[in-house]
Specification:
By secondary structure, the protein is α/β, with parallel strands linked by helices. The chain has nine helices and seven strands. α1 packs parallel to α4. It is globular, with a radius of gyration of 19 Å.
C-alpha cells in the first residue's frame, strides 16, 4: 500500500500544495495498524517500507537547494534529515521489519537547474547542497538497524555527470542527459502547459528513451530503469 503524495515534503512549512507531510503519512499508516484493517502483526513482521524523499523541502523554499548563508543551510538540512530519522523510528516502533530511505539525487543536474546554461553542465551549488543532505542523512541513520539508504545520488551521477571509468556504458545509452524530453517554451512554464486557446506551450522529443529526464525534474522510464539496475543488487541483499 502507499501513503505517498506528489509534492509532499518532510517539514510542514515547506510541503507544496498543502500535501500531507511525511509525519502525517506515517500517522495515517499508524491509524490503519491500530484499526487492524490493513496490517496485522504477521504482515508487519515481513514488511518493508520505502521512505521516498526527493527534495521538495528545498525546492519549496528556494529555486535551488543552495539557500543563502552556510550556517542557515546546515541548520535547515539538519532539521530535515532529523525529521526523516524520527519518522523511520516511528515506522519501526509500529512493527515494520525493514525500512529503505533514498538519499537525494544530484539536484543540480536536473533540467530545471541546467536550463540556464543551455543544458551543458550541472549546477555545482545544487549538488553541494544535496551532498550535505546525504552526509547528514547517513549520520542520523548510522546507528539504526534494518535501515538501508538507497544511493540515488551515485546512481544518477553515474549517468548524468559521470567521470572517466564510472557509469560509462549506462551513460552512453542516453543522447541527452541534462535536457528534458518534454520542454516548456518558457523557463517559468511546465511540461503539458497549454495557452488560453489550447495551444501547446511545450515540445516533446521523438525518442524519450534517449533522454534521461522526461521534464524539468523527473527521469524518463528509461532513465529510472538505468537507475534501478544499479540499486537492484544492494536492495535485494537488504530485503533478503
Amino acid at each position: 500500500m502507499t501513503f505517498a503524495y506528489g509534492g509532499a515534503g518532510v517539514l510542514d512549512t515547506t510541503s507544496a500544495h498543502k500535501a500531507p507531510t511525511l509525519a502525517k503519512q506515517v500517522d495515517t499508516f499508524r491509524k490503519m495498524v491500530k484499526d487492524g484493517t490493513q496490517a496485522g502483526k504477521q504482515q508487519l513482521s515481513r514488511s518493508v517500507a520505502l521512505v521516498a524523499i526527493s527534495g521538495n523541502d528545498y525546492y519549496a523554499t528556494t529555486a535551488v537547494i543552495g539557500l543563502t548563508a552556510p550556517n542557515d543551510i546546515n541548520a535547515y538540512i539538519g532539521k530535515v534529515t532529523k525529521e526523516i530519522a524520527s519518522n523511520v523510528e516511528q515506522l519501526q516502533k509500529l512493527g515494520v521489519r525493514k525500512v529503505i530511505v533514498n538519499n537525494l539525487h544530484p539536484v543540480g543536474c536536473t533540467p530545471s537547474q541546467t536550463r540556464t546554461n543551455n543544458y551543458t553542465t550541472c549546477d555545482v551549488f545544487g549538488n553541494l547542497g544535496a551532498t550535505v543532505h546525504n552526509n547528514n542523512l547517513k549520520q542520523v541513520m548510522t546507528d539504526k538497524k534494518n535501515v538501508h539508504i538507497a544511493d540515488l545520488y551515485s546512481a544518477f551521477t553515474n549517468i548524468v555527470d559521470n567521470v572517466p571509468g564510472k557509469g560509462q556504458e549506462m551513460s552512453k545509452n542516453f543522447k541527452r542527459k541534462l535536457s528534458p524530453c518534454c520542454e516548456s517554451f518558457n523557463s517559468e512554464g511546465y511540461c503539458g502547459q497549454q495557452g488560453e486557446t489550447g495551444e501547446l506551450l511545450y515540445n516533446v522529443c521523438e525518442k524519450s528513451n534517449k533522454f534521461f529526464y522526461w521534464d524539468d525534474m523527473h527521469p524518463t522510464h528509461a532513465g529510472w530503469e538505468a537507475v534501478v539496475k544499479q540499486l537492484e543488487k544492494p536492495l535485494r541483499e537488504f530485503v533478503g
